[in-house]
Amino acid sequence: MDNLIQTERIQILEDKMLSAPRYASIEQARIITRVYQENEDLSVPKKRALSLKASLEQLEIGVEPEELIVGNRTKGVRYGVVFPESGCSWVNQEFETLPTRPQDKFLVRDEDIQEFRESIYPYWNGRSMEDVIKQKYGKEINAIAKVVKINQKDHAQGHICPDSALWLKLGPRGLMEEAQQKLKTCDDSQKEFYECAIIVLEGACHFMMRYYHYIMDMLDEVDDEYKESLKGVAMICQNLSQRPPETFHEAVQSLWFLFVILHMESNASSFSPGRMDQYMYPYYQKDVESGKISQQDALEILECLWLKFNQIVYLRNQNSAKYFAGFPIGFNIAIGGVDEQGHDTYNELSLLILRAQYHLGLPQPNLSVRLNKNSSHELMQEAIKVVARGSGMPQFFNDEAIINTMIEDLGIEEKDARNYAIVGCVELTTHGNNLGWSDAAMFNLNKALELTLNNGRCLLTNEQIGLDLGNMETYETFEDLEKAFQKQIDYFIEKMMKAEEVVEKAHQDCLPTAFLSTVIDDCLEKGLDVTKGGAKYNLSGIQMIQVANLADSLAAIKELIYDEKMISKHELLESLKADFQGHEITQTMLLNKAPKYGNDVQWVDDLGAKWAGYFRERMKDYTNYRGGPYHTGMYTVSAHVPMGENVGASPDGRNALQPLADGGMSPVYGRDMAGPTAVLKSVSRMKNSFTTNGGLLNMKFLPEFFKTETGMLKFENFLRAFVDLEVPHIQFNVVRREDLLDAKVHPEQHRSLTIRVAGYTAYFVELAGKLQDEIIERTAYEDI
Amino acid sequence: MKTSKALVFDIKRFAVHDGHGLRTTVFLKGCPLRCRWCQNPEGLSPKRKPVYFQNSCIHCRRCEQFAQKNQMKYDNDRPYLNPQYQGDFDNLIRACPSGAIRYDSEEYDIETLLKKIQEDQVFFRDDGGVTFSGGEPLMHGEFLFEILKRCQEVGIHTAIETTLYASLDLIKKILPYLDLIYIDLKVFDEIKHQEYTGVSSKIIKEHIAYVLKSEHKHKVIIRTPLIPTMTATEENIIAICQFLVDIDPEVQYELLNYNPLASAKYDLVEFEYGVDKQYKMFNQQQMQHFYDIVKAAGLKNLIIE
After folding, report:
1. Nearest Cβ partner of A783 from B14, B62, B99?
2. Where are the domains of chain A?
3. CB nearest to A592's CB, from B12, B97, B119
4. Percentage of chain A exceeding pLDDT 90
5. What is the mean pLDDT of chain A?
6. A593–B97 CB contact, under 8 Å
7. A43-57, A168-182, B9-23: which range is least confident on average?
8. Is the ipTM of this complex over 0.90?
9. Among residues of chain A, what percentage have pLDDT more than 70?
10. What mean pLDDT comes out for the span A143-162?
11. What is the pLDDT of residues A285-323, one digit of tens each?
12. CB of B241 within 8 A of CB of B253?
């Protein structure tokens, strides 16, 4: 692999991409609005299908002469697409702020704002999904917002891994034929589903042909150097509109078309390709063995795809951009791991995928490596080489922690569990047959504790938001406090679940997704849209925020107040109310005199695990709107910062408004004093059932660690212990603090510096200052 | 021997410089040598002492409120602990909210220490394990013997960092329980050895010769820390190498680059750092010069990171 290079073509394309300005686009909103207006009497699914078809036929397209993989949903790269059906009230309010807001900025055109206000927004105001949810349940959702953040209120869910192998096998034509067959024999309730599927698949074929014509028209202007390859791309587009792919190049192009169209239909985050090294390998193997392409050719094609993964970003509202900062679009690719028989598997394509990441180091795809007890030394060392490059990738997932738990806790079939993939950041899914609804809500356990300690009142505003069960001074014993905490949690879970039902129903009513449904088993079979439960598996994932702070707070209360009586109950409550102003000794004691999560202190870790376990158990009392189970995750994306802004001073010694622990399973930064092995031990005390929706552990190492072969081998030992400890996930930022500080001052010199935020990688210079500081502060292990 | 105990002044997990693989290094307190450049001066004294970390102190004077007579005085906005005080300092340590006052070491019995080492056993894999360092671990003869035996029983690879400044009987007794032996040979000249380390080099050399002729010789790595003007001289390195070549030219040998950072630790001990502050780490070129000397002297197995 070491002799493979990054070609000039890739460098040209990367430069073009990174220097292109990023605009908000209303082009698709215009088309969708028109289709809706022209078809008022049709059903929502029909209108949705027709508007996707119209978009596929009409949206402006573009091609760069050097491209080997073509296609995007806007002509410009990295545009933010205004999508009216899911929500545009926020766009109406925030349009002008897009170029200046602190996180995820976009340029805007005045004429677009005007058109949006005059002819797009008026139609959608009151009709978009965002408005529907607001009218129905907005008040209730706001009332619990400091404890429970309900997600997916103004955009489609996404977070799904399509059955790419099926798409490659049949292509849009083949899928269309299936839908046509079904339509002949189906009952009336299924009819519309198949009709919609046929409409969008026709659109897909048309979309591919448009690229053929576009390229043929531009060919005369193209330099000789790239003319031949570009003409080849045109032929591929033509072929794919008529038949399934036959070559590796065709397969990669076909895969990219699939993802572009999925984004056009939903405008959602995290459509993930999953186990690409498995389902793409037959195409690769055939072409390489027959001498049709070389390894270097295959790598160049892959790198073109890698660039494409970076050309779709996702426009979020300002608040959401805080929680999901830096455009995590979640093209998650998982390589390695066990096969259906449970044997470790990887191939040359897995290694090429790592090489592409090694060369480019861009935020997308979000590259994941699945490890298990039998993972090969070769794959691990190649992966570690990429880790050492510092893009925060690949992240590692642990088959030993994940597969059995999926089977036992979620009732997933063994072959599906073994074939798990990752969507978005770290969300676990089966491959091609699962609407995981993994980002349903975030539950702030620390806010629930705060309310328990203070008569249900918010420490920041004194507002009554929770149950009044007493306060720190009235709980005779630690067990009394725990009982009250339990009731407080139950209260908010109940409210959260009601909100979830409203949100899911709104998605069914407003955002059916015919195209997506054609590539999720068993929607085509059942004739049922994926939002309505057409998938084989229907899960909903709630994130527990943040067990690290919670464990630290409870440990401090137990040890310093109840057991050792070093601080009085009255003093603790007063100091929290005062945000420790005038109570510095108390704060210092809270910080230093009680052990903290992340230091391999079993009873502290167990306290965290106890409450995560309690929460996880409660999920079993509920069934989601599609009839599937709820489960839990421990990851925050970048939400530990805004979630912290909702929480007053906490008994772990943290000041009001300060960020919570990052990641999800990571200790609070600066409190893990016993090194990375102790962190892994602590984290391993979180049961695997807590993280069937995904867990996230962040670690920061300095580049020196990887300088020698010995260092790389020691790192492999560390990862193998990670596997044995059954920690579900780990990722590493390998970057020097000074480089980050310099990038803050001279962003222009660090345009391509990427950093692991939380389950995804973003351009460091594109993050808001507060988040940049937060990342710089994270503990680093500099010792090797 | 079950009640055997030792003072441990640090346990470092994820130690990656003290031998193969990922290791836990246990620092045993007390050392008969007084090397002028000692990297762990807090491990020299064999006694447990209370220490005060000014950086952690929040100057709340809580210690003063809880202090016994003669235990400490508060002056210049900080406590001064009285080393002559006869009782313990548990009260002050409990009172201090920031942990600025603590003991410099903790006493461990065999089973507690073994449990602590085993905390990271999953990380040791095939090549990692435990390393006993100090101080001079051989000062805890019986304890060391017991703990090494227990570690081997539970399948943990064992290493030691020692000067062999101890009785030969003890050395003979523990050799079978060690998998890797780092031996420091710092200064060859006897007079200079006494001047820089406070002890004679005679038995150190004898014991090195013994070990290198024993069946355990393949486990040994001899090391010389490069201290400017003291050990890092051509004569010294040549003399050490010739001494080793005469015994066994195949012996593994390593030069440790000078690390000036240790001087920061000397605020906490009643002992002065003996190397001039002006000296820095040796650069690559200087290191290469030393490597060339070693090779010219005929040592065949020089370890270069």
Report:
1. B14
2. 8-137
3. B97
4. 83
5. 94
6. yes
7. B9-23
8. yes
9. 98
10. 95
11. 999 999 999 999 999 999 999 999 999 988 888 888 877
12. yes
Q: Is pLDDT of A661 > 80?
A: yes
In this structure, what token pair is assigned to residue A557? 């209360």
* Secondary structure class of A565 (helix, strand, coil): coil
Instruction: Tell me the nearest-neighbour CA distance from A76 into chain B, angstroms.
Output: 49
Report the candidate in B160, B70, B147, B151 with the shortest Cα–Cα distance to residue B118. B151
Q: Which two tokens stand for residue A259?
A: 């993802």
- Residue ranges of domains in chain B, CATH in brackets: 5-45+107-303 (3.20.20.70), 50-103 (3.30.70.20)
**Residue A678 touches partner B, C-beta closer than 8 Å:** yes
Q: Which helix (H) or strand (E) holds A733?
A: strand A729-734
Among candidate residues A23, A123, A127, A133, the one with its CA nearest the CA of residue A82: A23
Which candidate, A304, A152, A134, A327, places its Cα nearest to that of A229?
A: A304
A725 contacts A684 by C-beta, under 8 angstroms:
yes
pLDDT band at A750 (very low <50, low <70, confident <90, very high): confident
A571 phi-psi bin (left φ>0, alpha ψ -120 to 50, beta other): alpha
Question: Which residue, B144, B208, B140, is CA-closest to B176?
Answer: B144
- Predicted pLDDT at A536: 98
Chain A residues touching B60 at Cβ < 8 A: 584-585, 588
* Cβ contact A595:A682 at 8 Å: no
Assign A783 a pLDDT band (cuts: 50, 70, 90).
very low
For A466, other C-beta atoms within 10 Å of its C-beta total 24
pLDDT of residue A751: 67
What is chain B's length? 305
